[in-house]
Amino acid sequence: MAQYDINLREYWRILKKRKFVVILITIVLGLFSTSFAILRAPEPLYTSVCSIKFEKETTLEGLYAKTITWSGGDDIETQITVIKSYPVFERVAERLRLIQPSKKKDGTLSQNTVRIVDELQSKVEVTREELANILHIKVTDRNPMLAQRLANTIALTYKDLHSEEQMKRTKEALKYIREQLREVREKLRKSEEEFNTFSQKNELISIDLQSEGLLTRARELQDEIRKHQANKREFKGILRRLNQFIENPSGSDHDFYSSKANTRYQNTNDTLVGLLLKRDTLLKAFTTRHPEVVTIRNQILENARKMGILLQLQIDEIEKQEIDLRGELEKVDRKTKVLMDKKLEFDRLKRRVDSYHDMTALLERKNQEALIRRAEKPEEVTIVKPALLASQPVNPPKTVATGAAGILIGLVLGIVIGFTVETFDTSLGAIEDVEETLGTQVLGIIPQADVKDIREGLKEKHPEKIKEHSVEQAVNLISHLVPKSMMAESFRALRTNIEFKEAEKEIKTIVIASTSPEEGKTLVAMNLAITMSQAGTKVLLVGSDLRKPTVDKAFGVEMTPGLSDILMGNYPWRDTVKTVTDIIMGQMSPDEVMMTPGLDNLHIITSGAIPPNPAELMDSKRFIDFLQEAKEEYDVVIFDSPPILSTADSAILGANADGVLLVYRVGAVSRGLLKRSTAQLEQVQSNLVGVVLNGMRPDVSPDFQDYKYYSYYYAYGEEEKGRKSGKRGKGLPFLKRKGDKQEKEEQKITVQEVEERAPEKQERRGDTLEREVRKLSVSDTSESVPKRREGKSRGRRFALLLLAMVVLGGALLWQNGIIGPPEKWNLGSPVKKDQVKPAAKKATVKKTIPSRSKTVSTKPKRTVSTEKGRPQVKVPAMK
Q1: CB 3.0-4.6 Å disulfide test: which of 48, 324, 606, 804 passes with 147?
Q2: What is the pTM (predicted TM-score) of this model?
């Protein structure tokens, strides 16, 4: 599909192109949905709704939850469950006289009772109205009277059961409260006696003052212990420095003072400080070995040792005091713990007395409330709206809606699938796509032809003139046998575009090539040669496909001698040329040759015997010489070459020819292969003149429809027989059915008139044979296929559609169990999902591409010299 933004007309074209897929899916889903809706039409059901209000009373609110932690289950969600409970429906069944109020000896119900209750429960649905305490009891049944009666009975039964349950709970609560009140009063009396006995025995009147004194003493002892620990750490640090000083008296650390030490230690420290000052004074005048210095040093060491002994004594004293303090602290802690245990027991007994006192007051209050509740007899359930008799079913059949939904879904799904197939189409179809991808012009558009219709049309119009060989080769020689057909006009338009290209630069040798086999290159080569010869141009058609030759078969001439014999040097090339005489002597009759004038201007060189080395023969000097001589003798030389990607022959021919005309069958190959073929031509410096789109159909290209190619090319200047006025034809008579009753629109100008304006071609119009042939009356080849063919085709289509509908309907009936063995017939049985197996379908969609015609550009194209000094052709290896 084209890469540019498509408009509404492009969408419409794609829908018409994929209309079979859209229509098929729409019909299938529509039939399936309608059949399913009919087969699954539900049995009519009627619904009756009874509304009740549940208003929760607040006089005893929280009675059970707060007092004895017993939930009454009176919230809205709980009531919905209660309404659908078994006891309610059992009593409903008894009131409706569906079961007898009798039980078995062991207290269990019968199977019949359980089944009836279950059936009733399945018919009922209870819902809550949003933001309200309203419950809707909805009953659905096939009998509207039963639905109404069942809904009202359920509401009345639930109301009675709820009232009975409320009164029962009130009585049970009152009984329970009185029992609990007696027990709590007795426990209160015992707890008060126990509390008084404990208080008097332990004299715990001033327990708070005692506990406070013990806690204060414990804190004081802990402070003393921490103080002694700090002093001990300080003395140990000084002692460690003293020991270091004794080992090294000359050190700089002389600070051993402590305010926490005793007086004796401080006096010794003062003596040490004086000795240190005296030593420092002597050292200024004497050395360390002087007798006075030595004496002072010994005194210093003696005082230091004495200070260490004093510190150690103080440390020992502190540790002894710390042990005493810890012992006293443990005694205080034991007294405190005993006192606290008594206090905890005192508080526990006091809390028990208070708790029993509060419980007694609460139970007395609840007892009074229960008495009031029993006297009031409140009703929490009220019937707001009784159930009415239903007049319309709630499940009317939706056959029309289901069928319409199926058709709509099928239409949407078909459109999506159609566009998906078109999106994934990687081939080229639009003229702009081809020109943008390949960077060249589209010179011609060859429409799609129905070979069978062409052959039958020739047999009916010329039963005596046309031989069987010409009928078989009708498409290849359509420009000669059916000159007024749409395809013939397309080839004449291609001829005109090439002549305009020749006006820019002379193109005398043209290679007709294609990317892959069976794209129509031989068809284009032969018909282009025929149309040029009809215009008076002297044309040489060379069958250069030395691997699969077809030119000789189309014209009915001998294959040998031919091009291979020329290249191998067996014959001069002029001796291998075949003219109109050879065609008449071949399989074509004189009447066939004379049907259209100008065939005498066409000369043919067939391929000859198939050689083992075609590429080497093409790349020889003999071929260059033959090409030069043929260019001098003929106006145009046309080569029918093999596919580009399959062989190297086309690249060699393209490098030596004046131009290459690339034939592309729409949708045949992807754009990647097409670009690869043009890239291979560019590697050998071939002159790509343009592209010919073959096999174009109206549903493929919007341009093909917009420019009215079918109506323009259809026998311009002549009227069809049996067509209504005011309508235009849409194609060749052998391309459409006779039911197409449309008349062609007259055109203002034809391709022939354009050709007559070319003065270079006008001189050759005087050919004798052509003038003789123009005198012959050419029969109209535009007669359409007989109506019987149309009737048969339509009959086959209708039969196939009817068969598909019957098969689909039968499959639906079989899957639903409506048809089949008699013992398996069950019209009411549902269809299981695992029984339905949808049949897989494969839709074969042809890839077609939109195209649009374009004017011929006058941009000059390069050519490759064919002189001896031409560049060497190097063909890349094919994968």
Answers
A1: 48
A2: 0.45
